[in-house]
Structure prediction request, 518 residues.
Amino acid sequence: MAKIRFIEHDGTEHVVEGEAGNSLMQTARDNLVPGIIGDCGGNCSCATCHGYVDPAWMDKLPPQSEEEVLMLDGAMHLEHNSRLTCQIKVTRELDGLVIRLPISQI
Amino acid sequence: MTQPTVAIIGSGQAGLQVAASLRELRYEGRVVLIGDEPHAPYQRPPLSKGYLLGEVSDGQVTLRPAAFFSTQQVELLSGKRAVAVDGARRMVGLEDDSVVEYDHLVLATGARNRPLPVPGADLRNVFSLRTLDDAVLLRARMDAARNVVVIGAGFIGLEFAASARKRGLNVTVLDVADRPMARAVSRTTSAACSREHEKAGVRLLFETQAMRLLGEQGSVSGVETVDGRILDADLVVIGIGVIPNIELAATCDLAIEDGIVVDEFLRTCDPHISAIGDVAAHGSDYAHGGRVRLESVQNAVDQGRHVAGRIVGRPAAYQALPWFWSNQGHLHLQMTGLRSTDCEEVLRGDPDGTSFSVYLFREGRLVCVESLNRPADHMLARRLLASRVAVKPQQAADMSFDLKSLLSGGHQ
Prediction:
C-alpha cells in the first residue's frame, strides 16, 4: 500500500490508498477521484488519464514507453512533467506521490 | 416509490458508466444496475488480447472494485435477466418474477455474437468470444490446442489470431470478404495488417467461407470451406459480427431498426427510456446526419455519461466524436471519425511499413483518420475532427507540414 495524493485543478485534494500492482489511473478511478477518466481501461489508447507528476517525484518513476510519449504528444495541456497515469504502477516506494490533474482531459 | 429511481439494464461498460456518472454528478436517487452475467461489470477489450496471454488478471478486467457498489450505493443485480418492460407502469420484470420500478430506464443491453449458420457449429471446441466466461473457457482450450481456425477477419478474429500466434498455435483466418476488416477500414490499412499478420505466421484466406465444421467424437476436427478446402482444426473461433439485443425493447414497443432507435438526446420514443451503447441506433454528425450503431468502448462510455448528465438536468445533444482502437500483436490500430466507402484516401507515412496514417476525405472534408502505430497522429486527428478544423488533403499528405498548427489558439 502507498498513499497517493491527487490534486484537482481547482486545488481539491484526494489522498487515497494505492494497492501495489494497480496503476495510478485505476487507483484514482477506484476512489472516484474526479478528473481522471481512463476510458480505455489502461491500454495507453485514450490519453484521458493525464496527470502532472510533482517535480520531486519525476526521477522515481519508471521511464515512459515510446507509445506513451507519442500519445502524450497529441494530448491537451501538456507540460514537461506530464504522464499517463495508466502507465505507472503503484509500488511501496511511491508512498507520498503527488499527482496534479489538468484542467480537462479532453 | 419512495425516492426517484434510475434502472439500468445491462451491466457492461455503458451501463456501469451511467451508474458511475450519476454518482459523480451527485444524483441522490436510487440507482439499480441489472446484468444477466454472473460477474460484476468488467471490461471486454482485454479478453481477446492480454487476458488470453495471462498478462491481464481477473482483478484487472474488473471495472470497479466491489466496494464501489456499496460506498456509492449502486444496487448491482448480477446474474439477473430482465425479461419485460412495462413502459406505462414504468416497471421492469426480471426472470425471477421480481420487479424494479423506475422513473427513468436506461437500456444498455449490448449485443450478442452472430452464430455461424453451418452444420457442426455446435461441436465441442468451437468458441465465440464476448464474455468473460467465453474467455476463461477459450484460454483453457488454448493450452491444449495446436491448430486454430478463425472464422471472420474482423477486429475480434484478428486480435485473437495475434494472441494465438503469440502462444505458438498454428492459426488460419478465413473471411468471405477480399481483405481483413473490410467493412471497417481502408484498403491501405487492410493491406498493411494482412502483410504483418502473415509475417507473424498467420495464414489468411479470403473470399471463402466455412461450409461445415467437421467433428470426431463430438469435438471439432476441421473446417470444410465452400471452395473445397479441408483445414485441420482442434479449435475454432467464430467472429462474424454481432446482433443487437433489442428483444427487451420490443416488449414495450420501442422503435427498432438495426438497434433501438434514439433521438439526439439518446431517448427512445418513450421519454422515460433511453438506450445507449452497442444497442443504440443514433444519428451522428460524423455520419453526415445518418443513423449509426457503434460497437466501441468510446461509444459506451460517452453515451453513458451523456445520459447521466441528462438525468441530472444537463440536457444537450449527443455529439461525441467516435474513436476506436484494436491491438493485434505489434499492430496498434487507432481510428477516429467515421468513414464511408466513397472516401478519398490520403497517406501520411510509408504504407509499406508499419507506421502510417490514412486520412479519409469526403467531398473535400476530413471525416476519418486511421493510424497504424502512430498514436500522436491519432490524438491530433481527434482534436482536428472534434474542432471541425478544415484540413486540406495535400496538408495531410505532406510530412513536413505540422498539422498541429491548424489548431487555432491551441493548448499544445
Summary: Chain A is about 15% helix and 20% strand.
